Amino acid sequence: MKVWKQILTWLGVMSVLTLVAMGLWYLLCGGDMSTASLKWLQLMQTVGTFLLPPLLCAWMWSATRQPWHWLQLDQRPNGKVAWLAVAIMVCAIPGINLLADLNGRVVLPESLGFIEHFLREQEDTAAALTRRFLEADHFGIILINMGLLAVLPALAEELSFRGTLQQVLGNRHTAIWITAFVFSAIHMQFYGFVPRMLMGALFGYVFVWTGNLWIPMLMHFVNNSLAVLSFYLFDNGTDTNYADTIGAGTTWWLGVLSIMLSIGLILLLRQHAGQK
Questions:
Q1: Distance between CA atoms of 222 and 255, rounded to whole angstroms?
Q2: Which of 79, 92, 77 has the alpha carbon at shortest distance from 264?
Q3: How far is CA 30 from CA 24, 26, 40, 132, 150, in A?
Q4: What phi and psi, each to the nearest 5 degrees, are found at residue 237?
Q5: 256: buried, middle or exposed (CB in 10 Å: 19+, 13-18, 0-12)?
Q6: What does the alpha-carbon distance between residue 149 and residue 141 come to, in Å, rounded to a whole number?
Q7: Are 71 and 54 a contacting pair, CB within 8 Å?
Q8: 42: part of which helix (H) or strand (E)?
Q9: What is the mean pLDDT of residues 15-25?
Q10: Better-predicted residue by pLDDT, 167 or 1
């Protein structure tokens, strides 16, 4: 099947299942905008938009009807590579914060002030919603949040972006960066666009080097889970995101060091990638 037909098929399946997910949520929750209801919406949208479409498309496109093989999920990852992947994401936190801080300092021309105002409002709305989702008064809610905001997005988004879009586009440099751009853009957060795109590109290159989608999934999970856990460890009940300030502002040097160390670990991962 030609690339454009595969992309249209994927988008078509995604659109239908997204509408089904939203319709199901409305039937079950009646459009209620409470935090619990919005979590159900998040769950259904993630499953309908990002999890099921790549599985269905991979099943259709696989000559042997083995979606796990087409998605490169049928091999166990190299243990050393997996640990290096975890180390990269932990080490990269200050560097990501530095890039996010620089991205957040972008000021649009005065003639585009209305766009900047809209983008800032979107960013504030997304941050407020995330904080609503993360608030918890017992351990069970924390586990639910880890599943909803760390485990599920890591699986579903990597299936859709690296597993499907990047592979359809050809797993080359252009495919990796186009996929990373789309991955970042779809989060609708302009002031986190650059670090998220670079992270998406990293996931894409790791996928190509290892030939195993489990590794980008692991990296995605580590990034999201650290963000969730940092809220409970440092930020819960405060208005300051302490974990997001490490490597930014007066600690910019930690961000620079983080980026340098992360690059070294990435090169080491590449060296070991593909080894049994």
A1: 18
A2: 92
A3: 9, 5, 12, 20, 26
A4: 85, 5
A5: middle
A6: 12
A7: yes
A8: helix 35-46
A9: 97
A10: 167
Q: How confident is the model at residue 275 (pLDDT cuts 50, 70, 90)?
A: low
CB 265 within 8 A of CB 271: no
Residue 219, classed as helix, strand or coil, is helix
Task: Note the Cα 87 to chain centre separation in Å.
Answer: 17
Contact status, residue 70 vs residue 159, Cβ threshold 8 Å: no
Kindly give the residue spans of alpha helices, DSSP state H, lying in 161-192: 167-169, 173-185
Q: Tokens 């479409």 appear where?
A: 53
Write down the pTM of the prediction. 0.94
Give CA–CA dist 96/71, Å, rounded: 28
Assigned token pair, 247: 């490597």
Alpha carbons 17 and 11: distance in angstroms, whole number:
10
76 DSSP 8-state letter: P
- Residues found in the chain: 276
Using CA atoms, how far apart are residues 3 and 12, in angstroms rounded to an integer? 14
What tokens does 39 get? 């979590």
